[in-house]
Input
Amino acid sequence: MRQEDPVATAAPVETAAMRRAIELAARGLGHTSPNPVVGCVVLDSAGRTAGEGWHRRAGGPHAEVHALRAAGERARGGTALVTLEPCNHTGRTGPCARALIDAGIARVVYAVADPDPTATGGAATLAAAGLDVEGGLLADEAAAGNEAWLTAVLRRRPFVLWKYAATLDGRVAAADGTSRWITSPESRADVHRLRAAADAVIVGSGTARVDDPQLGARISGLADDEISQPLRVVVDSGATAVKAGARVLDGTAPTLIAVAEDADTGHLDGLAPILRLPRAADGRGLHLPALLQALYAREVRSVLLEGGPTLAGAFLAARAVDKVVGYLAPVLLGAGPAVLGDAGITTLTQALRLDVTGTERLGPDLRVTAAPVHPALHEEN
Output
């Protein structure tokens, strides 16, 4: 396997094909968990596109298989561009490394090495079979598209995206508690897309009590059966916020209520599954690492945190936020609850510094995307 700079040495046709594979991979978002999103483009021996594919759903054929089927005999002697190192294990489907070898592919270029110990080794298998193998082409772009899955594999907990909506002066509600609607319909529609891409949505007891949220995903132009609904999780330490008739208990999606180990949950019998967890060390709320571990064990790989200031502060204090999306409305209130509660930060030197990775206008609002500064995900393993 060659170790040269893949971007500097790649032929333009391969770079273009990898960019196409990254676009294809994105079509699987919200449908493949607990598996990654993967795209593949097969070029024939003359460098022309012969087949394309992406991983469409967990348990179904992988991207390479779809692309090889589309390419047929034109794959023989060709090149496969894949966003993730081809898998080397047999699970619900066979190993993609073997499928590429059997199809007669001569060269494989992948973007990101597979950090999953149960699936890695595909590149070595391909090289041992005599194929020309190269890794790292457009690795940063491919890793960004797979950030939730890579985070979950490398950190052994779900990826956490904290979303909030606020006024320009950082208020999430007015002094009298009213908060509907601070942001525009365009911003609210974007939140539903975030929900559909996540495995779970989490809110706290305050949000559940005040807003009675339904937490389902609704996307204009898509039928209900075309939308992946997230697991709805309510962090309700004392089991006092969710009652019979709550919208979060409707049949739109499954619901899980996380409570303290000593909470009385008799009134919730038959309404929703209960997850009992230890309390946080300070006695306020639940032990969030235990919550994330329990969700990971349920194959939750990505979480959309929609809780209010208190829960958001607790997640930040636990250093359990991987990405932030803030919807800022051109509105001023001057008073009312701030967007973030106590995060365990008492002085400026403790501030959690973020890297702004994107800004976008949504109607009258501004969406800001930022993340704590970490090493690139594909460099952590």
Remarks:
- The chain has a mean pLDDT of 91.
